[in-house]
Amino acid sequence: MKNKYVTFSKNIFIPITNVCRNACDYCVYRARSPEDAYIVRVNQFLALLNTKLEATEALFTAGEKPELVNPEFAKWLHKVTGCSTLVEYTKELCKLAIGHGLLPHCNLGVLSTEDMKQLRDVNASMGLMLETTAELEAHKNSPGKAPEERLKMIAEAGQLKIPFTTGLLIGIGETPEDRIHSLEAIKSLHAKYGHIQEVIIQPFVPKPFTAMEKQESPSFDEFKAVLRIARQILPAEIVIQVPPNLTAPRELIELGASDLGGISEKTIDYINPESPWPREAELRKIVAPFVLWERLPIYPRFIRKGWYSDEIRPLIERYAGEDGLRRL
Question: Are 164 and 151 in contact (CB under 8 A)?
Answer without folding.
Answer: no
